[in-house]
């Protein structure tokens, strides 16, 4: 039955109404949260007109660099290119356009960057220092973890020997005292090495567990007379 005044048949019961499909086909897309935004050319029909490249002039210190990049690229993509040119890590870069720092997620065309536009690149010294400190911290933790692993390997070997001697002692067998004392001394040497390792977080926990294991390994019965 046709609806009066429109000549359009109402949808069948239970059939969803295709609202917004024509809009989406017209160049819009639905982003998380249900927001409709204009599709970028890279997301549209590949047979449509290709996105043009532009040439931007980037000033870094006293040097100028001309970069050819997609007009719809992000500032983050530009940073990657500049990292290869200048050797400056992307996290240490600040890109200034029209006297305003631009976020890496912002798109060039959205803020008005065009062919021939000038952008200023400066080094973020705070970010560089923070990254340097973090890098040193990670390297220190990796070194400490390796040292603990090496000590654990030595302790496991010595602990097996101590356990074997302890069984002999408990079984009433006489053991040369110097043999046991020598093993205990070697274990204590490993304990001193552990005490000299500076560690934080998980590595510190590893060190604590290893120290506890060492104390147990050295807690053996004295040799029988």
UniProtKB/TrEMBL annotation:
SUPFAM superfamilies registered for this protein in UniProt: BAG domain, Ubiquitin-like
Pfam families: BAG, ubiquitin
Domain Ubiquitin-like stretches: 52-122
InterPro entries: BAG_chaperone_regulator, BAG_dom_sf, BAG_domain, Ubiquitin-like_dom, Ubiquitin-like_domsf
Chaperone is among the record's keywords: yes
Matching PROSITE patterns: BAG, UBIQUITIN_2
Domain BAG: 147-208
Protein name: Uncharacterized protein
Organism, scientific name: Rehmannia glutinosa (Chinese foxglove)
Keywords, alphabetical: Chaperone
Span of the signal peptide: none
């Amino acid at each position: 039955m046709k609806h009066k005044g429109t000549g359009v048949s109402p949808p069948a019961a239970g059939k969803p109404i295709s609202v917004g499909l024509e809009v989406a086909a017209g160049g819009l897309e639905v982003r998380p949260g249900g927001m409709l935004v204009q599709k970028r050319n890279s997301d549209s029909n590949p047979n449509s007109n290709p996105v043009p490249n532009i040439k931007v002039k980037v000033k870094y210190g006293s040097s100028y660099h001309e970069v050819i990049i997609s007009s719809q690229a992000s500032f983050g993509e530009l940073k990657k290119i500049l990292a290869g040119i200048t050797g400056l890590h992307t996290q240490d870069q600040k890109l200034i356009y029209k006297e305003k720092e631009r976020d890496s997620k912002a798109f060039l065309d959205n803020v008005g960057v065009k062919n021939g536009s000038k952008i200023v690149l400066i080094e973020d010294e705070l970010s560089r220092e923070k990254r340097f400190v973090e890098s040193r911290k990670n390297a220190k933790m990796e070194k400490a973890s390796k040292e603990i692993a090496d000590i654990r390997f030595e302790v496991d070997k010595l602990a097996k020997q101590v356990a074997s001697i302890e069984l002999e002692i408990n079984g009433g067998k006489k053991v040369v005292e110097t043999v046991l004392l020598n093993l205990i001394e070697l274990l204590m040497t490993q304990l001193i090495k552990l005490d000299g390792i500076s560690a934080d977080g998980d590595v510190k926990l590893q060190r604590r567990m290893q120290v506890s294991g060492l104390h147990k390994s050295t807690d053996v019965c004295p040799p029988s007379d």
